[in-house]
Design brief:
By secondary structure, the chain is an all-alpha fold. The protein has one domain. The chain contains 3 helices and no strands.
Length: about 80
Amino acid sequence: MFVLLANSALLHLGEAPEAAAGAPPVDPPQARFTIDLLRLLKEKTEGNRTPAESRLLEGILYDLQMRFVRSLRRG
């Protein structure tokens, strides 16, 4: 599920491979919502994830947050 949500956020940031193929326009508010949803899932699943799942989620969140900030700076 984490990867599915990450792909959604990438799409809304205009950074998914599908974005070049006529996907919907960049939508930062929707990207932020998806990132916030991943943060909520992280909080609510604390203690119930495997170490590998935790590492994956941490990596996904870090990457998406950095991409989001870069997209805001680009305007």
